[in-house]
Write a structure and sequence with these properties.
This protein has about 375 residues and is mainly alpha-helical. About 60% of the residues lie in helices and about 5% in strands.
């Protein structure tokens, strides 16, 4: 027996589909608008010598992860209470931003406190548009911006020097297997004949590897497959980047030690690292099916439950309020461009210690005399 669909039921389905698309578009657009000024003050280059530059990867991936969040569809179900709660969270976010800017001065941007409190904005937008009932579907997106803050930088600074030493030892062992004329001078110097080279943090910083993980996480989240396969895919990407970076450093060191410093070697060294990063990303994307992972089409809206036509007024109100708060934050964050932004690589928490650039070791620690 053929089931008939009434005009009222068809309108209900179309209305629900339109609401999902409208909610998604407004949500992602609001996030992008709120990220414009924070991105304008962020270094788009991931630098080995500055561990804090890894944050550009999660910042660029926040809108992407926001889109991925709607893979299985999320129907806006915000009621009056949800709208009030979402507005309260967004208002608190704006006021907290203004207060912390005044309280922390240059440290606000140096440690990217703007991104540390950004989860509050996402919580507010999600509650305002989709209701507290659906908030669990935004858990990954709410937590992810925390990694766009530089709160990890002090920890990475302590790891970075040791990681550079590990790389220099590995490069030395490769070169020593080719010729016995190579000697290792701890912690980072390799010597052969008339020339020496230092494998410092500017050659093998840990920031690039962290940026790769934070880039791959949203893709693994969106892909269909088992959790263990997703973790294996991410670990494989890390190992591949580590291998390619070892080969890069060993090749440059071999040429440098055998033929001496040259403009050509320095020029190749200046860009080949980031080239390897992109090659690694492309390779892992192409290899994704080999790990049992795939991308499926987003689910279509399901025609269940009662009609939502009576809630259209609240839906449009929540969309309007989301845009209004996004514009307000955009205006508030315009002054980010004028705030002093000192990298945590320079601002070390340890008393009386600063970092100064050094050609051979990337960063050289200098202890100031007591006053």
């Amino acid at each position: 027996m053929m089931k008939t669909i009434s005009a009222e039921g068809n309108c209900d389905y179309m209305d629900r589909a339109l609401r999902e698309k409208l909610g998604m578009v407004v949500f992602i657009a609001a996030i992008i608008l709120m990220l414009v000024n924070p991105l304008r003050v962020t270094n788009f280059n991931i630098e080995d010598a500055d561990v804090s530059t890894y944050i550009i990867a999660p910042m660029l991936m926040i809108p992407v992860l926001a889109y991925f969040t709607f893979k299985n569809g999320i129907t806006p179900e915000a009621g009056a209470v949800d709208i009030a709660l979402g507005c309260a969270a967004l208002l608190a976010f704006v006021l907290l931003t203004l207060y912390l800017q005044f309280l922390l001065s240059y440290k606000f941007m140096s440690y990217r406190i703007d991104m540390l409190i950004f989860p509050l904005a996402i919580f507010g937008l999600a509650t305002l548009l989709f209701g507290l009932k659906n908030i669990q579907k935004f858990r990954a997106l709410i937590l992810y911006p925390l990694f766009a803050s530089t709160f990890l930088a002090p920890v990475l600074l302590n790891i970075n020097a040791g990681f550079a030493t590990l790389n220099s030892v590995f490069v030395y062992n490769i070169l020593h297997s080719l010729t016995s004329q190579v000697t290792y001078i701890p912690p980072i110097t390799i010597h052969a004949g008339l020339y020496s080279i230092g494998i410092g943090t500017s050659c093998a910083g840990i920031a690039v590897f962290l940026a790769l993980v934070l880039f791959m996480l949203p893709i693994a989240y969106y892909a269909d497959g088992k959790l263990k396969d997703k973790l294996f895919w991410i670990v494989s990407g890390l190992l591949l980047l580590l291998l390619l970076n070892f080969l890069r450093m060993a090749s440059i060191a071999f040429v440098w030690l055998n033929y001496g410093p040259s403009g050509t070697v320095s020029y190749v060294h200046s860009f080949v690292g980031i080239l390897i990063f992109y090659v690694n990303v492309l390779a892992m994307m192409l290899l994704l099916p080999k790990y049992g992972l795939s991308f499926s089409k987003a689910a279509k809206p399901v025609r269940t439950g009662k009609g939502a036509a009576g809630d259209n007024g609240l839906m449009f109100l929540s969309c309007l309020l989301a845009v209004v708060f996004a514009v307000i934050y955009f205006a508030v964050s315009l002054n980010y461009l004028s705030l002093l932004n000192i990298s945590p690589t320079i601002l070390r928490r340890a008393s009386g210690t600063i970092f100064r650039p050094d050609i051979s070791s990337g960063l050289r620690e200098v202890t100031l005399p007591p006053r």
